[in-house]
Amino acid sequence: MIGRIAGRIIYHGEDHVLIDVQGVGYVVYCSDRVRAGLPGAGEAAALFTDLLVREDLLQLFGFPTLVEKEWFRLLLSVQGVGAKAALAILGTLGPDGVSRALALGDWSAIKAARGIGPKTAQRVVMELKDKAPMVMAMGTAETQGSDSVTPVDVIETAPAATPAPPRAANAQAEALSALGNLGYAPSEAAGAVAEAAGAAPEADTAGLIRAALKLLAPKG
């Protein structure tokens, strides 16, 4: 399995780039958004890759981050969604947009991607809404930085009487960060995470995200 390519770009194609890695040229298919963010010919570039194997075809697909690669793999698990459709969805929405669409059940956002019809968009939302928190948690861990919420922030904001153990606090912080990335206000996100953590103290990040999203879902 080829999981990452690093070399110099030889040229940009219509739907791919050719990357020279120590004298070997690799054709790597990318979304329009990813290709637009890559440097020009002769410049160094690196992409995480997923190798699609068929009876008569081997194709490499490239992504700037591991979390985007995982979204691609998850989208491929949906019936009727092939590599081209998965790239179209990611190219249109980006990984954060896909997270938001699945969290909100917004299949119309998925349908905005080129070549995606309403039935396919609805299927994506239905089949992935329970699996998405795992990738969302991965994305939160990947982007944790100096501006991210710390475990202390969660403990101080959430109405919990007893401080959570370090592992649980980290899960709460990552869940809170993920909900913030989806556009939820800090106060409502903290309340939902605290309630979810109170109901399931041993829940991991993905479990907290899933439970908090259910609490934040519109009622009715």
TrEMBL record:
Region (Domain I): 1-64
Record's function text: The RuvA-RuvB-RuvC complex processes Holliday junction (HJ) DNA during genetic recombination and DNA repair, while the RuvA-RuvB complex plays an important role in the rescue of blocked DNA replication forks via replication fork reversal (RFR). RuvA specifically binds to HJ cruciform DNA, conferring on it an open structure. The RuvB hexamer acts as an ATP-dependent pump, pulling dsDNA into and through the RuvAB complex. HJ branch migration allows RuvC to scan DNA until it finds its consensus sequence, where it cleaves and resolves the cruciform DNA.
Record GO biological process: DNA recombination; DNA repair
Principal localisation: cytoplasm
Name of the protein described by the UniProt record: Holliday junction branch migration complex subunit RuvA
Biological classification of the source: Bacteria, Pseudomonadati, Pseudomonadota, Alphaproteobacteria, Rhodobacterales
InterPro entries cross-referenced by the UniProt entry: DNA_helicase_Holl-junc_RuvA_I, Hlx-hairpin-Hlx_DNA-bd_motif, NA-bd_OB-fold, RuvA, RuvA_2-like, RuvA_C, RuvA_C_sf
Complex formation: Homotetramer. Forms an RuvA(8)-RuvB(12)-Holliday junction (HJ) complex. HJ DNA is sandwiched between 2 RuvA tetramers; dsDNA enters through RuvA and exits via RuvB. An RuvB hexamer assembles on each DNA strand where it exits the tetramer. Each RuvB hexamer is contacted by two RuvA subunits (via domain III) on 2 adjacent RuvB subunits; this complex drives branch migration. In the full resolvosome a probable DNA-RuvA(4)-RuvB(12)-RuvC(2) complex forms which resolves the HJ.
Organism from which the protein derives: Antarctobacter heliothermus
Compartments in which it is found: Cytoplasm
